[in-house]
Design brief:
mainly alpha
Length: 104
């Protein structure tokens, strides 16, 4: 079916009648069932899997049917930045806890 679809240039998202869905329909369905649009869901997949390194980014690209490696690099960078921030916050909490014990 994939070969036929590509050869006939059929739309990816189709109604039961075979007609092309409106451009915003997939995102509308995501929002209705998941509480957010498709773009946000794709971003979340990249961010969560990005924590796993290269294998995670490869999986995120596959899950989101993306081929552009710039997406992987961007979201992996976001995941690394978030991990560093979380680590810094954890270090600050540990310092504050240690200071409270010392004073206490």
């Amino acid at each position: 079916m994939r070969v036929k679809t590509l050869a006939e240039e059929l739309p990816l998202f189709r109604a039961t009648t075979g007609r092309r869905l409106a451009a915003g329909q997939p995102s509308k369905v995501w929002a209705e069932h998941m509480g957010t649009g498709a773009h946000i869901s794709w971003s979340r997949v990249h961010m969560e899997l990005g924590r796993l390194g290269q294998k995670g980014m490869t999986a995120a690209l596959a899950v989101n049917a993306q081929m552009d490696l710039r997406s992987a690099v961007y979201y992996q960078g976001q995941a690394v930045a978030r991990a560093r921030m979380n680590r810094g916050q954890d270090m600050m909490e540990n310092l504050l806890d240690a200071a409270a014990v010392t004073e206490g």
